[in-house]
Amino acid sequence: MKKVIAIFAIALSLRLIGLNQSLWLDEAVTAVVVRDLSWTQIMTNFAPQDFHPTSYYLLMKLWTTFFGLSEISLRMPSILFSLGVGWLLYRLKGLWPAAFFLFNPLVIYYSQEARMYLMVTFLLTLAFYSLERKNAWLYCLAIILAFQTFYGAIFFIVGLMFYLLVIKNWRFLMLTFGSTLITVGMAMPLLWQQWHNSQEITALVVNWKNVLGTASLKNLLLIPLKFSIGRISFEPKAAYYLIAGLWTTMVWSRLKWRDPKAILLMTPLLLALVFSFVSPLLSYFRFLYLLPVLAILLNQGLKNNYLKIFILIGFIGFSLVYLLFPQFHREDWQSLARDLPEKTLVYGIVSSLEGINYYRPELLIKDLRFSALMAKQLLVVPYTAEIYGFDYQKRLIDLGYHQKRQQTYRQLVLETWVR
């Protein structure tokens, strides 16, 4: 038990490093939604324009009511869910799979993000745990809640169906079908609205498909790579791909592929690849829920404890690179917002500047695409302008402006234009 306590204590400690770093755009959206909207407004006003179910936002609304809206508070549920996954893996398969998951660099990165990906990972792991423990009611509840948290859970749920078919567990196969019908039926009215709106956005926003993750070889290969080394990247790229490629090959070659549970790892990826030809979503972070399966298969494939220790040290090493070097942290809206003058107007793509809204809610933000520009000086944050296919520089130059100053922050730019 001392080893278990030590592993979880270290895992928690690592997750607390830099937890107060700046929120990035999607996290700021979460924060602003739960800060500014009522429970009803989240479900009726916000949800139809979003791409996710409401469960996570409602949970965060409840959480922030008691614990506030600081960066640490907003991210703490993800930390707790990740530790919960580790505990389920420990109870199910022992300490090694739990450690492989808890110290996986991608898990540590997203444990520090105020989004729904660790919540759905916990729920799907709970479903698998309930299956192994033959707890039908908990299994059905976990399946239903998982889809109500993240629609992408459907790929894992279908993978469960194939897995149950292979192991000939007919009872739980029927339970999976029934639970899926219930949860999809519950979500369908909202899902239909969101699907329609997403198609409109995809048509209007020039490069939106690239953000979502098109069905490409690059996006497909990034999944095992990021599952193995996390979100870090460095120059020169040749060295990065060499190191990352060798490490990824070693990790994935050690998985026990002959185990039927490998179906749970590969089926969701294959289904998502096919689906992405219709509607892009092949981004690696959407499949965090596969990492518990990877941890189990890795443990089963490694027979040598020294090799297990080596891989665990590698995971911790990559995690520390992210945690200790700020250049790998998220967009620095915190510093940018702090440097903005009092009572100023900020121009940009309004929906992409929620980071400013979170840190400086008193400031007025205007859309650079549609606003009448009359002032002699403009503060411009051109974040996502390229994604929207908006040539903001051409518009400003055509109106007689020229760039006077550019201030750079991590992954962000603040420009001053004058005429």
From TrEMBL:
Q: What residues form the membrane-spanning segments?
A: 79-102, 114-130, 136-165, 172-192, 238-255, 262-285, 305-325
Superkingdom assignment: Bacteria
Assigned keywords, A-Z: Cell membrane, Glycosyltransferase, Membrane, Transferase, Transmembrane, Transmembrane helix
Q: Where in the cell is it found?
A: Cell membrane
The record's GO molecular-function terms, alphabetically, read: pentosyltransferase activity
Q: How does the entry describe its membrane topology?
A: Multi-pass membrane protein
One GO term under biological process is: lipopolysaccharide biosynthetic process
Recorded GO cellular component terms are: plasma membrane
**InterPro entries, alphabetized:** LipidA_mod_glycosyltrf_83
**PANTHER family tied to this protein:** MANNOSYLTRANSFERASE YKCB-RELATED, MEMBRANE PROTEIN
Protein name per UniProt? Glycosyltransferase RgtA/B/C/D-like domain-containing protein
